């Protein structure tokens, strides 16, 4: 056995037997191994008891190195990854992981799920956007004269964010544009916005002067503005547009879809402080211009009619009146107006109630012009001819009401022609009763007095009358001379047109064509089936009203003017009718001539019994000259 010598404390070597190998200074090298083995056996025994027995819980022994229970999920994963990390550190790691997960999910939400929405919001915050107005179509009269058109203009706007000196810029704007500098200063100082209008649709030369000022934050857009070259002439028919180019009244409203076109869009990109980005027009969609239209109005005749009506109504010492001139063969309206007139070029000067032609939009009791409907019914039923006579007492009674003529007289024997000549209420009532009130009602429906005419003008009124089942005897009397029924002057014009035009009932209208497309408007007409002999007798009797009756002042030398006057009582709000005040009118045409024009003239709230026949005469004499109307006397 080999021996080894080890130094002792004294430095001298000593000896050790091989059998005592591993023992140094009283301790064997084998002892740690035995201790480890015991520990391993104890640990194995403990684990074995814990898994096998199942009747004892594994609890810490309170001694260092005692075993801990196994963990699952995220904790187990962390234990496996970092076995030497303390419990507190692991908790912090778990918290950090949770926070990181929240931020990750939020990032996914923002960049994937709602990215488009937030992108749009961000884009909106840095852009200014508005619609651009298309050039509105031109309105021409029947001879190609411009009634309404759009001209070049410039809209001036500002970005208040860019304005450096609102007071100074406001003063400069007022010096060129007019108005109060304080108003401009308020606009230029508007908070929380990058866009305000300074002046919409300014004259181009005026806008150019503003450009020369080179004001901070003030910009310009090419635009158009509506103009009406004829001012108030025809204004009610033409109508007007608002600043956005939308039709508000008249034909501008009626044909807004055709005239207006399609707006464009303008979107400009701005920087962080609202300043424009160079080349920052992101989108500019051109506006699509509207179409032109040609209408039946003759602006020259319209001027004549308006002047004659204004002067005539003044002579009648009233303020309201209406007139319509229409072609009986086609339904084309050459002129139409109502007092007071409207000027679409200067709406600030227009009066209340001037925005529409009341002869189209308001129904009224027509009075004696309606006697022609009753006379036509009588002729058709054959109960009386033009020269047949009947006794007409001074008054008649029905249902506790009395009916008399507008002027006192004794009982008279009148022919049907004379009943119209003298405009006898009693005579037409008795003659219509003899023909049958039900037949009169049938003609009211036949000539569509209770329906609108279909004219292409906004706000047309329809007539009305009681259903025949509700008629009393006095109702029949009243309706026969134009009371107890409401119609529009346009409806009366259409009826007289049927008499002048062989019984054909036309549709009154303004639109003739669309010049750009070449489209020609078509309008319906209806054959009423009235016998030609009856129509000839009607025209003959209406001619007598002018030559021998109440319509004498309407006559034109060398022409056969036919027509009927009216002096209609006005219903009172308190019931009954007003005293000594009337709506008066005349509706007629020139028979046997090259003209098919039918003209109505009315005046409202006229004191005493007077006529509008002189106004009719003034209008139609001018029409004779303007259209070179020739007479073709009947044989």
Automatic annotation (TrEMBL):
Highest taxon above the source species: Bacteria
- Known InterPro entries for this protein? Beta-lactam/transpept, Beta-lactam/transpept-like, PBP_dimer, PBP_dimer_sf, PCN-bd_Tpept
Q: Which UniProt keywords apply?
A: Membrane, Transmembrane, Transmembrane helix
Pfam assignment, any one: Transpeptidase
**A GO cellular-component term linked to this record:** plasma membrane
Question: Where is it mainly found?
Answer: membrane
Q: Does the keyword Transmembrane helix apply?
A: yes
Annotated Low complexity bias: 37-70
Q: Does the keyword Kinase apply?
A: no
Q: Where in the cell is it found?
A: Membrane
Q: Which residues cross the membrane?
A: 91-114
Penicillin-binding protein transpeptidase domain residues are 321-621
Q: Where are stretches of biased composition, namely Basic and acidic residues? A: 1-20
Q: GO molecular function: any one? A: penicillin binding
Q: Where is this region: Disordered?
A: 1-70
A single GO BP annotation from the record?
Answer: cell wall organization
* Residue intervals of the Penicillin-binding protein dimerisation domain: 132-274
Q: Which family does the UniProt entry place this protein in?
A: Belongs to the transpeptidase family.
What is the protein named?
A: Penicillin-binding protein
